[in-house]
Amino acid sequence: MSRWIPLISLVVGLCTHTQATLTLDAALEHTLANNYAIQIAHTQAARAQTQTGLSQANLLPTITVRQTETHQSARTPGINTQTNQTTGTIQQTLFAGLTGITQWRKNKSLADLTQQQAEQVLETTLYTTTLAFYDLVEAQYRLAVAESVVALSEDRLNRVRIRADLGGESQLAVLNATVDLNTDKTEYQNALAARKAAEIQLNQQLNQALDTPLTAELPPTLSVPTSGIRQNRAIRIAEQSHRLSQLDQQLVLGAIFPSVTVRHTMQDTREPINTLEAQWSFTGWRHKQAWDAATLTHAETNLNRARVRQLVQAQWAQALVDYDRTRTLQAHELETVRVAKRNFDRTQALFHAGQVSALVFRDAQLKYTQSQYRAHQAQIQLGKAIARVHQLAGG
Which of 82-86, 255-259, 368-372 has the highest mean pLDDT? Predict the structure, then answer.
C-alpha cells in the first residue's frame, strides 16, 4: 500500500450552513475504511502473489525418465546382449525447468500488474477524495462570502429606503438597491447549490462501501517527502521491468549450454560414435539467440528506466516549484488578512465612536472578508500543490 496521506487538516465548518466538522485526514481515513474497490484490488493482488509463490516452488521440478543402455558384443552379434534399464533424475530437468520458468514469469507479470492496479486504485481514490474535499472547502468559502454580500446589500437597501422616506433619495435609488439585493441573493443561491453539489460529490467519494464496511490498514502519515523520486510508482514499475529483464537474461544465459542425453554406441572395432557435439552445438545456438534477444530487451528496459526517471524528476521539480510558489502566496495572503483585520478593528472602533460613517465601516468589513476569501483560496491551492507532491511521491 502506498504511503500517501498529506499533513493537511482543514475545517469545513465555516458558516451556519456547514455540516459537522470534517478534516481531510478524517475524509481519507473514511475512504480507506469504506471503499470496497480498494479492498477488491488488494485481494486480487494478494491472490496473484500467492499464485506466483506456488509457481516459484516448481521452477525446477524433478522429473523421472527411463534410460535404456544397450551393450552388444562386437565379435558375436546377437549373443550376450545385455540391456540395463534405470530410473533416475537426469539433466533434462532443465527443460522442464524452463517450462516452469515460463509459467512463473506469467504469474509474476500478473502479480505485478494486479499490484500496480491495486496501488493505482488506492492512490486515485485518495487523490479524488482530496480534490472533492477541497472543492467542498472552496464552495464553503464562496457561500460565506455570498452570505456576507447579501447581508451588506440588505443593509444598504434599508439605509436607502430610510433616506428615501426622508426625501434624501429617489425611488430609482431604492429600485437599484433592490435589484442589487436580488442579484446578490441569486449568487447566494448559486453558491448554496454549489456547496450542496460538493457535499454530494464528497459523500459519494466517502461511501463507496459494501453493506458491511471492510476495514483497511491505514498508511502512516507522511510529511512532504525529500526522497519522493525513489517512491514514484512509474519509477518503481520501470525498475521492476528492468530487474525482470535482467532475470530473463540470466536464466537464458544459464541455458545456453544445457546438458543433453548422449547416445554412446560401440560397434565392432570402430571408434565410438558420440552425438554429443552435434546436439550440444544445436541447442547452444538456439539458446544463444534467446540470450541475444534477452540482452537487447535488458538494454531497452535500462533505457526506458532512465527516461522514466528523467521525466519524473522534471515533474517532481515542477511540483516543488508550485509548492514553494503557493506556500509563498499563502503567507502573503495571510499577511494581507492580518492588515485588513487591524484596519477593520480600527474602523469599527471609530464607527462606534461616531467618527466614521457606516459606509466606511462596511467597506472595511467587505475588504476584510475579501482578504479572508483570498487567503482561503491560497490555502486550497497550497493543499492541491501538496497533494500533487504526494501523488508523485506515491506514484
Answer: 368-372
Which CATH class name applies to 1-10+22-63+87-215?
A: mainly alpha
Place 217 in a pLDDT band, splitting at 50, 70 and 90.
very low
Distance in angstroms between the alpha carbons of the first and the last residue of the chain: 11
pLDDT above 80 (res 158): yes
Contact 228, 389 (CB under 8 A): yes
Domains 1-10+22-63+87-215 and 226-254+276-395 share a fold: yes
Q: What pLDDT, on the 0 to 100 scale, is given for residue 6? A: 33
pLDDT tens-digit map of 53-101: 666 655 544 444 444 444 444 444 444 444 444 333 333 334 444 556 6
Domain edges within the chain = 1-10+22-63+87-215, 226-254+276-395
Mean pLDDT of 381-386: 82
Give the C-alpha separation, 395 to 228, whole Å.
9
pLDDT of residue 13: 35
Reported pTM: 0.42
Residue 115 CA to residue 204 CA, distance in Å, equals: 25
Q: Is the pLDDT reported for residue 18 higher than 50?
A: no
The set of cell numbers assigned to 142 is 464562496
In angstroms, rounded to a whole number, what is the distance separating the alpha carbons of residues 356 and 341?
Answer: 17
Q: Which residue has the cell 472543492?
A: 135
CA separation for the pair 384, 135 (Å, rounded): 10
Give the residue among 296, 301, 257 at the shortest CA–CA distance from 279: 257
List % helix, strand, coil for the chain (3-state, nearest 5).
Answer: 70, 5, 25
CATH number given to 226-254+276-395: 1.20.1600.10
Q: Which helix (H) or strand (E) holds 300?
A: helix 276-352
Looking at the DSSP assignment, which residues form a beta bridge with residue 68? 85
C-alpha dihedral, 343 to 347 to 350 to 354, nearest 10°: 170
SS3 178: helix
Which amino acid, one-letter code, is at 235? I
